[in-house]
Amino acid sequence: MAEAQTTIQSIADKDPQDFVKRQPWAESLGMVMDEATPERVRAHLEWSPQICTSGGIMHGGAFMTFGDSVGAICAMLNLPEGAGTTTTSSSTVFIRGLREGETAYATAIPLQAGRTVIVVRTEITNQDGKLLSQVTQSQAVLQPRS
User: Fold this and answer.
1) Alpha-carbon distance 129 to 146, whole Å?
2) CATH number of the domain to which 33 belongs
3) pLDDT in tens, 28-54
4) Over 70: is that where the pLDDT of 7 sits?
5) Who contacts 44 (Cβ-Cβ below 8 Å, separation ≥6)?
6) What is the dihedral sign for C-alpha 56, 26, 107, 64?
7) What does R_g of the chain's alpha carbons equal in angstroms?
8) Which of 136, 18, 7 is nearest to 84 (CA)?
9) Which residues form the Thioesterase domain (predicted)?
10) 14, 21, 45, 102: most buried by Cβ count inside 10 Å?
11) Is the pTM of this model over 0.70?
């Protein structure tokens, strides 16, 4: 099982964008990884008409997918050796919208990386640093079966 953890860390070391390639839904949104460490995961997502409401504002579901995906990568990087993870809860607070010409930036940090649960907070800001959304999620730590 040490191979699974080594693979996760080697992805982060080699090319963090490979995390996105393993999440087809996040990749379809255009998510781009900027940094992936156990202490912090950063990514960005440019405004696109394909992920907007009829009013031209980025759809809440795109924010939720973006935040959840970045947070899940942070959780993966904090797993004990050989363990897996799954989301058990996710809460998104929407503060302001993202408009044409803007870029969303997500930063995820672990609030708690325990033996059974990992809690991650992801803040999504625009290019000016204004908070757009905050996602807090809990990830169950799935121990390998004997």
Assistant:
1) 46
2) 3.10.129.10
3) 889 999 999 999 999 999 999 999 998
4) no
5) 31, 32, 34, 103, 104, 105, 106
6) positive
7) 15
8) 7
9) 55-131
10) 45
11) yes
Domain residues for the domain of 111 are 2-142
Alpha helices in the chain (DSSP H): 2-14, 17-21, 24-29, 60-76
52, amino acid identity: C
Give all strands of the β-sheet with 117-125 in edge-to-edge order: 32-36, 41-46, 103-113, 117-125, 131-142, 84-94
Q: What is the largest CA-CA distance in the chain?
A: 52
Q: Which residue has the tokens 């440019």?
A: 46
HSE, side-chain direction, 13 A CA sphere, residue 83: 20
Q: How many residues does the chain have?
A: 146
